[in-house]
Design a protein that fits this description.
The protein has 316 residues and is mainly α. The chain contains twelve helices and no strands. It has helices spanning 2-30, 32-46, 54-82, 87-107, 114-119, 123-129, 135-164, 170-196, 198-208, 213-255, 257-271, 277-315. The longest helix is centred in the C-terminal third of the chain and has 43 residues, at 213-255. The chain is globular and about 65 Å long. The relative contact order is 0.14.
Length: 316
């Protein structure tokens, strides 16, 4: 009897592990798109600190990301079980915040005078050259901003992962969502660390290169990395800002079912256009998400601006 019970237990464990493996693969595939946005946003957020502080800052943000997930994973599981209707509104609130942050970034140069813009066009550069700036506080603000952004993106990743195992038991849900959350964190911040240290690796290769074929190869790779690193960071800054609108707008569009159904209706029509059908059908959701993100970001920024004006009036 004991042997039979043990075999049944092993069989149950094997079945659960099979489910976990299959569901984890599906969840990872579905969250890949958000992973790219997460990488771009976080590389942008942690850029701009001193070279010797880059890895400690990435490590601090990675720890904050893990803390986010320690909050989000049990919260998502609890909400899914007790109040599944609340997940979408919460995500939409986070999406609105992402759109607001993105709009604030692109609107900042236009909201200041030409003199202010020319003197303060890059807060990272200002921080390095201004002796009055507390670099420790500057770092803390960078870390806190990155962790806030990570919270929203992590929430979307977790909800997507949870959606793939919604019909499974609590144990399978917990293992899959926790596993995806951990692997995504390690993958994203490992890649961010590699990106921000790319120029240092290039400099090291140049400094240690000697004569001969091996030295020539090291100098070539080092020069290429030094040349590529600033271009990559500039590209990631643009991609990171665009990702705020795409991710935030995408959350809002999916939350508003009538817009989502409208896109599903228009996509076959776009795909039927001669020659350009495939491109139009593929790009339509991104265009709608981006437009929704910009519009909502602008409305959110205007609303917050008006609220701050009212608060100032009442404080007088």
């Amino acid at each position: 009897m004991a042997g039979s019970s043990l075999l049944l237990l092993i069989d149950d464990i094997t079945a659960v592990l099979d489910d976990v493996a299959a569901m984890s693969k599906t969840a990872a595939q579905k969250t890949t798109g958000v992973l790219g946005d997460d990488l771009a946003l976080n590389a942008q957020q942690v850029a701009g600190v001193r070279a010797e502080r880059e890895l400690p800052v990435v490590y601090a943000v990675a720890k904050g990301s893990l803390r986010n997930k320690l909050i989000l994973v049990p919260s998502a599981l609890a909400l899914s079980a007790l109040a599944p209707w609340s997940i979408t509104p919460i995500l939409m609130l986070g999406g609105t915040y992402l759109c607001y942050e993105g709009f604030e970034k692109i609107a900042h140069p236009f909201l200041h005078s030409a003199h202010t813009t020319s003197d303060q066009h890059d807060p990272n550069i200002d921080a390095f050259h201004n002796p009055n700036v507390d670099m420790e506080q500057f770092e803390k603000e960078k870390i806190q901003g990155a962790i806030r952004t990570d919270f929203i993106l992590s929430a979307e990743i977790i909800v997507i992962a949870l959606g793939t195992v919604a019909d499974k038991g609590l144990l399978t849900q917990s293992i899959v969502v926790s596993g995806v959350a951990f692997v995504m964190t390690v993958g994203v911040y490992g890649a961010v660390a590699a990106i921000v240290k790319m120029d240092d690796v290039g400099l090291y290769l140049l400094q240690t290169a000697k004569e001969g074929k091996r030295g020539t190869l090291k100098r070539f790779v080092g020069s290429a990395l030094l040349s590529f690193a600033p271009r990559l960071m500039k590209t990631l800054t643009l991609v990171g800002t665009a990702a705020m609108f795409l991710v935030g707008g995408g959350i809002l569009v999916h939350g508003l079912s009538f817009i989502h159904h409208w896109i599903e209706t228009l996509t076959p029509l776009a795909e039927s256009v001669p020659l350009l059908g495939n491109i139009l059908g593929w790009s339509l959701p991104f265009v709608v998400n981006a437009i929704a993100g910009v519009v909502v970001g602008g409305i959110a920024m205007a609303a917050i601006g008006m609220l701050l004006m009212v608060v100032k009036i009442f404080r007088r």
